[in-house]
Write a structure and sequence with these properties.
The complex is a heterotrimer of chains A (230), B (325) and C (518).
Chain A: E1 2-11, E2 14-22, E3 27-32, H1 38-46, E4 51-58, E5 61-62, E6 73-76, H2 88-93, H3 104-116, H4 132-146, E7 150-154, H5 162-179, E8 182-186, H6 190-196, E9 199-204, E10 207-208, E11 212-213, H7 214-219, H8 223-229
Parallel strand pairs in A: 2-10, 3-8, 3-9, 6-7, 7-8
Antiparallel strand pairs in A: 1-2, 1-4, 4-5, 9-10, 9-11
Chain B: H1 2-19, E1 22-27, H2 29-32, H3 38-49, E2 52-57, H4 61-71, E3 79-84, H5 85-93, E4 97-98, E5 118-130, H6 139-144, E6 149-152, H7 158-171, H8 175-182, E7 186-190, H9 193-201, E8 207-211, H10 214-220, E9 227-229, E10 236-246, H11 252-262, H12 265-268, H13 271-274, E11 278-279, E12 300-301, H14 305-324
Parallel strand pairs in B: 1-2, 1-3, 6-7, 6-8, 10-12
Antiparallel strand pairs in B: 3-10, 4-10, 5-8, 5-9, 5-10, 5-11
Chain C: H1 11-34, H2 43-76, H3 82-89, H4 91-94, H5 97-108, H6 113-120, H7 131-155, H8 159-167, H9 172-200, H10 204-210, H11 218-228, H12 232-256, H13 278-306, H14 315-347, H15 352-363, H16 366-377, H17 387-424, H18 430-440, H19 442-458, H20 463-466, H21 474-483, H22 487-511
Helix pairs in contact in C: 1-12, 1-14, 1-15, 1-16, 2-7, 2-9, 2-13, 5-13, 7-9, 7-10, 8-9, 9-12, 9-17, 11-12, 12-15, 13-22, 14-15, 14-17, 14-19, 14-21, 15-17, 17-18, 17-19, 19-22, 21-22
Classes of the chains: A alpha/beta (230), B alpha/beta (325), C mainly alpha (518).
């Protein structure tokens, strides 16, 4: 269980409040107007914005002060998820050992993950030589080897076309199902939410509301969400 | 047994050290360079002294004195060689120097009766130019001519300071006026002798402040008789370079021996063609061929060393005022 | 970030900055403590301060202003010999002062090439001596450095940004507004501050080209205080003024400079679509040719003067060369050890004081620092034994500001861009350093190393105070040769020095090669 109890998050003067819990294995979309604080919520869970009040915990362990890399979190950013000077295999390998000293078993795991996302032929390529979709796949391969129980997506596929984006979301869904991870993804597209998320966290008025069932919420949106959905 | 061996080793080491005492001589850089007198002097002295002569170069004359002041009484130096008469009073005031008993029949343009400092060579400051130039015969005609000269800054260079005192000795209270008249002749003022002489050789000016002995280098070492020094009727300023021993030397006798060596033939005969100055005592064999062709000033000027600091400060202030406008 | 989480620590940089500050200020303090009561500052000293500030400010301004079009031309054009030209551009900066001055005057002097040509046209010779001569000489020294630093700024604009601008149909003017001006705002103030600081301690150049005692700088006043009056207090006081002036310049630069970066791209080679017009080509070509002539002619003069002297080189020059190489390599190592952590600290936004500490080495008078070191070392050890290590150390500290100017912008970029990703991957500390920061900064590290090696080769620094004949460095040997009337051999040794410095610079710079094609 991921718990945010009476939490206040500070993002450079903007304060977001949250008092909610996410069940393990949940697939949650974070929805809200632009600038409402979607990335702030995700960033706080990942450790990039300080939690100034309240408790942030995972499986009962308080995370408030844990450094980003030592949280049970794998995260993909809007862009820049790959290091341009490292090959695909190296970028994926970082998920196992940030210093890239991999043993045989780990290297094998990297190869498997790359194969799992369909990039087998491209292990030695640099990101600049990959298409946008392939770059996303490479980043997902790293998420796979990281094996963290919480996966946070901050719109990493926003730049992809609809078909490609759906393909990626399906891939994410498969990966999450395979290792039973909990997913929180920022989205501004209700279709994405319907496609992958069972629940939705709505952010409005400086508050992140507790998760609600996706279909229910989107079928009967409260006024703020209705205004956003148009 | 082991201790015995170490003790023996220590004993032997000190014994060896005692056999060849070390004499440390601070001097200016160009003296120790391989073209300077240093190497020959070292060889000659070590043949007779049964010691190890260590010549250490430290900048030029003024830097040498500054260095001694920094080191104070703890200095390793036994002898200092390379101060000139403009610095001797300041050197004496440090209380670091001891009198010597050296006397000699000096061939200096003036009488020498200082019992601390032993003169080893001397020269006249002069403006060097190419043969064929119609060189002026004094500062007034130089100022009136359109000849271009390069001089050195008195604050950072020995010849520069020499020129300052030269003008002051000759013209006294009229010195500022002379400098004001000279200002349009001065192409530039350099930090040191090397820059000035280098620029002169590149043709940046008609004349450069140097020594009457500079043409000897070109004549003897390069067989080039195209350079000469202008003789000024009003006389030339002298530079007399001296050596002295330090009161806190741990080798007082050896230091005294070295000072005696300085005025001997073995030392003096090396000076003309390595330091390119006149020896303080003309060696038995006379001056090397070529020196007789050098310009011979009629008159020598030298500010007494006791007055040097006061005259210098006044002359510098005048110089700065006259040339800064 | 939570608890100020950062991918690398900032403490090492603070430690390095404290060490540098302690070294410089400690030397100053040592000189103060050793001083007897002096006569205090004289009116002439204040005149020196005024002249120093004026010439340093003008020199920085002109170097910077002229470097912008040159760097832009070099950034926009690809031509045969471009790399060689950029490498040669580093040369004036690393020459010993006396050699560079002789080279400059061979071209611009009363009897120089330009005056000779004017003479054929029946015109009077060039009047080089005066404030304009000082500024010209300082521009000769510093224009290349400024150009390299600004060129680096250009190269740090990612290819993606140029692509975007080109897509938007941005012509040269729009490109200037969108990309180039913001970049210059970020880079130029720091460059100007560094050049200002170098010119503050200028002495021989200012005096020789200034044409007389009107061109007295603070450094010359320090010389006078030290040699003439042995007034150590005044010498140290004057050096404090140098430091304060540099500090002011640095603070202004830090305030003016904007730190908004461009984000980063995927290392695509930079390709530009603007400035394809004839006018722009002619303009760039003209600028490059003019600058090349201005900078390369004096080098050619040094080459011509030195070539006949090469066979005259005595054995002592070989020893001096080895000493110089040794010192250069050691000081490069020290520069990198100090500058990398400091650059990281500055990149993490904790850098104001660190940046100032970095400038100290350049700001303080070499004579005072040398004297201070001498005073500190003398009771403990024979200064002669330590001549080479001390020279390496001081050279390293003096190269520090240049290294920082090169390293900091890139470090900032890497940390902001990849910091969060690295943190989320738990790569903080060593792995981030080894796997991200160092590889991403290779080009800058190479450039910084090359520059500090070459600087150390060419700099007399404090060696003159410490060196005995066996431990002379090559620049000192050049001076000694000149002092012994050996002008030909000195010119040969100067040429050797020039070639070796260039070779060192080139190999380091190449080693950390930039984009494949730059």
């Amino acid at each position: 269980m991921l718990k945010l109890e009476q939490v206040e998050i500070d993002n450079g003067g903007f304060v977001l409040r949250a008092d909610l819990a996410v069940p393990e294995g949940g697939k949650i979309a974070v929805i809200g107007a632009s600038g409402a604080g979607k990335s702030t919520l995700i960033g706080a869970i990942a450790g990039f914005h300080p939690v100034v009040r309240g408790r942030l915990s995972w499986r009962g362990e308080i995370l408030n002060d844990a450094p980003p890399g030592q949280r049970p979190v794998a995260m993909l950013f809007q862009d820049g998820n790959l290091f341009p000077h490292l090959s695909v295999a190296q970028n994926v390998g970082l998920g196992l050992n940030p210093d890239l000293r991999l043993n045989a078993a780990q290297s094998e795991k990297v190869r498997e993950a790359i194969a799992r996302v369909g990039l087998s032929e491209m292990e030695t390529r640099r990101p600049a030589a990959l298409s946008g979709g392939q770059q996303s796949r490479a980043a997902l391969a790293r998420v796979l080897v990281q094996g963290r129980p919480l996966l946070l997506l901050d719109e990493p596929f926003a730049a992809l076309g609809p078909a490609l984006k759906n393909e990626m979301l399906d891939l994410v869904q498969d990966l999450v199902r395979e290792n039973g991870a909990t997913l929180l993804m920022v989205s501004h597209d209700p279709m994405d939410a319907r496609r992958i998320a069972s629940q939705v966290i709505l952010i409005e008025g400086g508050t992140a509301h507790p998760p609600q069932a996706t279909g229910e919420l989107l079928d009967n949106p409260p006024p703020a969400l209705r205004a956003y959905l148009g | 047994m082991k201790y015995l061996a170490i003790a023996a080793g220590v004993f032997c080491a000190t014994a060896v050290a005692a056999e060849t005492p070390e004499l440390t001589v601070y001097t200016y850089d160009s003296f120790v360079s391989e073209w300077g007198p240093g190497p020959q002097i070292e060889k000659a002295f070590e043949q007779t002294c049964g010691c190890d002569l260590k010549l250490i170069g430290a900048g030029d004359g003024a830097a040498l004195l500054a260095r001694l002041k920094l080191e104070g009484a703890r200095s390793d130096a036994d002898v200092v060689l390379g101060l000139d008469t403009n610095l001797t009073q300041a050197a004496l005031d440090t209380g670091l120097f001891a009198p010597s008993g050296v006397t000699a029949e000096y061939d200096l343009p003036m009488a020498w009766d200082d019992d601390t400092f032993v003169p080893y060579d001397w020269g006249y400051f002069a403006f060097v130019h190419n043969v064929g130039m119609d060189a002026p015969g004094d500062f007034r005609s130089l100022a009136a001519s359109d000849a271009k000269i390069i001089i050195q800054d008195p604050r950072s260079s020995t010849p520069g300071l020499g020129l300052l005192l030269w003008v002051k000795s000759v013209y006294g209270d009229e010195a500022p006026e002379i400098w004001a008249d000279l200002s349009d002749n001065i192409v530039t003022v350099t930090k040191g002798w090397s820059e000035a002489y280098g620029l002169f050789l590149e043709g940046e000016a008609d004349m450069v402040l140097s020594y009457t002995t500079s043409p000897a280098y070109h004549l003897i070492a390069e067989e080039d008789d195209g350079k000469t020094a202008a003789v000024f009727d009003e006389g030339h300023y002298l530079q007399i370079e001296v050596a002295a021993r330090l009161a806190n030397s741990d080798q007082p006798e050896l230091a005294e021996t070295f000072l005696k060596f300085v005025v001997s033939d073995a030392f003096q005969s090396v000076i003309p063609t390595t330091n390119w100055m006149y020896p303080a005592v003309i060696p038995e064999a006379g001056l090397p061929a070529g020196f007789e062709k050098l310009s011979q000033p009629e008159k020598a000027h030298l500010v007494p060393s006791a007055d040097a600091t006061a005259v210098r400060d006044e002359a510098l202030a005048e110089w700065l005022t006259a040339l800064s406008q | 970030m939570a608890d100020g989480a950062q991918p690398v620590g900032h403490r090492a940089g603070l430690v390095a900055a404290v060490l540098v500050a302690a070294l410089i200020l400690g030397c100053l303090l040592a000189v103060f403590l050793r001083a007897e009561t002096g006569r205090g500052m004289a009116a002439a000293d204040w005149a020196g301060v005024r002249f120093t500030v004026v010439q340093a400010a003008l020199s920085a301004l002109f170097s910077g202003v002229l470097a912008v079009p040159l760097a832009r031309a070099l950034a926009r054009r690809r031509f045969a010999g471009r790399r060689l030209l950029i490498a040669l551009l580093g040369a004036p900066f690393i020459l010993p002062v006396i050699v560079a001055v002789l080279g400059m005057l061979a071209v611009f002097g009363r009897n120089g090439w330009v005056s000779l040509m004017l003479g054929w046209l029946g015109l009077p010779p060039l009047q080089i001596y005066g404030l304009h001569g000082v500024v010209l000489a300082h521009v000769f020294f510093n224009l290349p450095l400024a150009t390299r630093l600004i060129l680096q700024g250009w190269q740090e604009i990612p290819a993606e940004r140029f692509r975007l601008a080109a897509q938007l149909g941005a012509g040269p003017r729009a490109m200037w507004q969108l990309l180039e001006l913001p970049m210059l705002r970020r880079v130029l103030p720091g460059v100007l501050a560094v050049i200002f600081a170098i010119c503050l301690t200028s002495f021989a150049v200012a005096l020789t080209l200034g044409g007389g005692p009107g061109a007295t700088t603070i450094e010359l006043a320090i010389y006078q205080a030290f040699r003439f009056d042995f007034d150590l207090a005044r010498a140290a006081m004057l050096s404090c003024i140098q430091i304060v002036l540099t500090g002011c310049a640095a603070l202004i630069a830090l305030r003016v400079s904007r730190n908004d970066g461009f984000g980063s791209g995927l290392d695509r080679p930079v390709q530009r679509w603007d400035a394809a017009g004839i006018a722009a080509r002619v303009l760039d070509g003209g600028i490059i040719v003019m600058a090349a002539l201005f900078l390369l002619m004096p080098l050619a003069a040094i080459g011509l003067a030195g070539a006949p002297g090469l066979h005259l080189l005595p054995g002592s020059v070989v020893v001096a060369t080895l000493n110089s190489l040794l010192v250069a390599l050691a000081s490069t190592g020290v520069t990198l050890l100090l500058s990398m952590p400091m650059a990281i600290t500055i990149a993490l936004g904790r850098g104001r004081a660190v940046e100032l500490a970095g400038l100290l080495g350049l700001a303080a008078s070499p004579l005072v620092i040398g004297t201070g070191l001498f005073i500190v070392i003398y009771p403990l050890a024979d200064p002669f034994d330590l001549a080479l290590p001390v020279t390496a150390l001081v050279n390293a500290v003096m190269a520090l500001p240049f290294a920082l100017r090169i390293l900091v912008p890139r470090a900032q970029q890497v940390v902001t861009r990849y910091g969060p990703l690295a943190l989320s991957l738990d790569m903080a500390g060593g792995p981030f350093l080894r796997r991200v920061l160092l590889p991403r900064m290779r080009a800058q590290i190479g450039f910084a190393a090359g520059l500090s090696a070459a600087l150390s080769m060419g700099d007399l620094g404090v060696i003159a105070l410490f060196a005995d004949p066996e431990r002379a460095t090559l620049p000192l040997q050049v001076y000694r040769l000149m002092g012994a009337y050996q002008m030909q051999a000195a010119a040969g040794a100067a040429l050797l020095l020039l070639v070796l410095s260039m070779a060192l610079f080139w190999s380091f710079d190449r080693g950390g090669r930039w984009h494949a094609e730059a």
